[in-house]
Specification:
Layout: H1 4-16, E1 20-25, E2 43-49, H2 58-68, H3 70-74, E3 79-85
Parallel strand pairs: 2-3
Antiparallel strand pairs: 1-2
């Protein structure tokens, strides 16, 4: 079974057809914080640049990503740090 970072990557790739996608497990930086577990896989950083975000507000983009990853949140993921952009917003 793939790890959570791989599942996040696959889900976001399928849902948003990104031009750039980075998923980083930052769980080690949150040890001892709320939601952290000793085995990790709880805190992630995501950079996602997708045409799907064109014309969407920041809140709508965040909601779309959270909706796409609802199963991961239900399965123990605690936090996401998101950088979400449309291609025209990136130089």
């Amino acid at each position: 079974m793939p790890n959570r970072a791989d599942r996040i990557h696959a889900t976001l790739q399928a849902r948003f057809a990104p031009r750039r996608l980075e998923v980083v497990d930052d769980s080690h930086r949150h040890a001892g914080h709320a939601g952290a577990r000793p085995e990790g896989e709880t805190h992630y950083g995501v950079v996602l640049i997708s045409p799907a975000f064109s014309g969407m507000s920041r809140v709508a983009r965040s909601r779309a990503v959270h909706e796409a990853l609802a199963e991961e949140f239900a399965g123990g993921m605690h936090a996401l740090a998101l950088t979400l952009r449309a291609p025209e917003e990136v130089s």
